[in-house]
Each structure stands twice: as structure tokens, then as C-alpha cells.
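stage 2 :: seqdesign
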């Protein structure tokens, strides 16, 4: 992470890079986003090669990434962007996806994407998704979570790029009992507020626990934490 890449806060807007090969689509996104006081579009890219290059140069907080683009596609661009910022803190990639393309969803997970926006969503969905990712959280719609669980909640293989810095078993042993409780609730899709209510904690304390879980497991965000928890048996479908 570059030293001059500060987390967005009240002193500056969320910096967004748009990556889509259709000019009209990019223009539409820009129009939607730039009416928001807390969001600034810092650049546009028409292909994955340019998107990865601009992400390095501009250091956005969020990259809104289309999948199908000429030359380098959005999945490869996502791999390049996240590979340069292993762990929390780098630009978060928000992938545009649809229900009927599971291959894109799973490939994007492997590539290190932090969020998935359904193409049939609303402008409000787009704005909220960008704010969620800028806060350092991952975004996975409940419908997509069910698909991830159905596909990856079985032995073998990993979709979390890089994975923990040590073995999964050793990383899990490093969690405190409270951190493991938090991981289970995150895997169930609970928000910080819901976790706080369930464990009788303050939301600031929950946020600290979530950050420590991600750091100990070597994961970028909550999306990877969900997948990791199911992959390694911390939680099980229906459990």
C-alpha cells in the first residue's frame, strides 16, 4: 500500500476508478456517482490493462470493474490490482456480475475482488456498495453467498488468493475464542451491528475484532472471510 493512500474519511471523498469498455456505461456511472458529496470519480478505463495501470497511478479506494472487456479482461485486471496490495488496505475491486454467470463470480473471488454488484441493481445499490467497500468491508449479496457456499463448502481447493500466511489450521489456532465467534457470525452474513447485539459488545469493539481476524488469517476483507470459514470447516451449510 502506498504511503500516500489514506483511508477515506470526512476530510476527503471516496476515490473511484471506473473500468468498462462502453463509454455510455461509464458516463452513466459517473453521472450517478458525482452527485454524491462523498464520492469522486478519479478516472475511467476502457480495458483491463488500462484499469490496472490507472489503479497503480491514481490509488483509488474502489475500482468499479466490468468483466468482459477487450484485451485484458476485468478478472485479470483484478488479479493484477490485488496482487500489488496483498492484505487489507489496497484498492477494493467491485465486480459487476449476474446470477447466471457463476464462473465469473468464482473467478473473481480467486482474483481477490472485494464485492459483487448485480447488474439488475439500482443506483442506490451502486452508491451503497462503493461506500461499504471504502469502509474496508466486503460485499456479497445473500443470493451470491448461497452460491458460494453451495460450490465451495467442500474439501479441497481455495478461492482466497494468497490465503493465510501460515497453514489454515495454525491460523485458526491463533484466533482467540471471541475472534472465532466473530468469524462464525461474519460467515453467517451478520453486520457489525448484528454481531455487537449477538455478543453484547460495542460496534467499535466488533470492528476491532473483525480487523484482527482478517489480519491473523491473512485475508483482505469479509468476503474472503466468509469463503475461508466455509472452506475450512469453521461453519457448515445449515449449521
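stage 2 :: out
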Amino acid at each position: 500500500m502506498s504511503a500516500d493512500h489514506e483511508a477515506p474519511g470526512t476530510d476527503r471523498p471516496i476515490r473511484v476508478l471506473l473500468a468498462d469498455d462502453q463509454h455510455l456505461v461509464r458516463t452513466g456511472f459517473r453521472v450517478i456517482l458525482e452527485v454524491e458529496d462523498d464520492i469522486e470519480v478519479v478516472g475511467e478505463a476502457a480495458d483491463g490493462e488500462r484499469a490496472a495501470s490507472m489503479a497503480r497511478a491514481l490509488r483509488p479506494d474502489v475500482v468499479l470493474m466490468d468483466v468482459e472487456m477487450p484485451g485484458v479482461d476485468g478478472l485479470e485486471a483484478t488479479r493484477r490490482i490485488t496482487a500489488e496490495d496483498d492484505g487489507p488496505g489496497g484498492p477494493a475491486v467491485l465486480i459487476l456480475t449476474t446470477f447466471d454467470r457463476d464462473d465469473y463470480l468464482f473467478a473473481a473471488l480467486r482474483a481477490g475482488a472485494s464485492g459483487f454488484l448485480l447488474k439488475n441493481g439500482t443506483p442506490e445499490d451502486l452508491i451503497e456498495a462503493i461506500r461499504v467497500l471504502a469502509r474496508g468491508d466486503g460485499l456479497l449479496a445473500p443470493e451470491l453467498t448461497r452460491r458460494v457456499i453451495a460450490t465451495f463448502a467442500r474439501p479441497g481447493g481455495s478461492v482466497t488468493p494468497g490465503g493465510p500466511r501460515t497453514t489454515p489450521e495454525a491460523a485458526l489456532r491463533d484466533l482467540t475464542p471471541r475472534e472465532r465467534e466473530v468469524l462464525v457470525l461474519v460467515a453467517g452474513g451478520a453486520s457489525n451491528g448484528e454481531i455487537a447485539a449477538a455478543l453484547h459488545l460495542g460496534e467499535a469493539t466488533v470492528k476491532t475484532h473483525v480487523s484482527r481476524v482478517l489480519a491473523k488469517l491473512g485475508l483482505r476483507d469479509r468476503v474472503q472471510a466468509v469463503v475461508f470459514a466455509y472452506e475450512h470447516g469453521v461453519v457448515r451449510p445449515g449449521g
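stage 3 :: structure notes
- The longest strand covers residues 39-45.
- The CA atoms of residues 108 and 219 lie 15 Å apart.
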